[in-house]
Amino acid sequence: MTDEIQVLQGIDTLLFARLLENAGKEEGRLIPYQTSLSFDPQRDSDSTATKSGNVATTSSLETNLEVEFVNNISKISDDLYTSLFKNKKVETWIVYRKRRNDEGKYYAIYMRGTVTEDSNDNDPDDNSTRDVTFTIDGTPKFGWLTLPEKAQAEVDYVFRGLETIDDSNKNGGGTEWQDTDTGAGSDDVSANESNQMPGNNKE
């Protein structure tokens, strides 16, 4: 039987970024409200005619990275301007949130470069948008990464219960549904469990 090939969707491919100089003090951040992401590595080729036939030659790898997003007030969107106007290096990660390995880590492409163009459109009847182009240094690196807790929450929020959220109770007393929960649940529960339901406190 042939293994099913999974199709990757553009909506599940996201760009994170960070100024390289901030690597020691902050996490990579998701660029909010992305509408388009283009990863374009290319290598020009040429050929030289010889008496024995054509000999192909190739140039060094060039990579362009482009992201479009709805303009917003966030640190990372301001940092992209900093990269452009002050010629600051940026780290970027393309994260595929529907491709994970056995350890639960996400497939990603890591790059370093500089913002070389940032086009801002402001039509009167639409949201302000930005189209940012990066010129990438060297060769992109491929690997697997763990999303920090804050980044995970930005990408895909998790189930929460009704209780107050704090450092010791990050899910509000809730437990996320598992595949093994199919068919689970009954009204045959203990009195103590029943008393935990809202409105059942007799005190």
From TrEMBL:
InterPro entries: Phage_69_Orf23_MTP (IPR022345), Phgtail_TP901_1 (IPR011855)
Provenance organism: Lactobacillus melliventris
Disordered, as annotated region: 37-56, 164-203
Polar residues: compositionally biased ranges: 47-56, 189-203
Protein name: Major tail 2 family protein
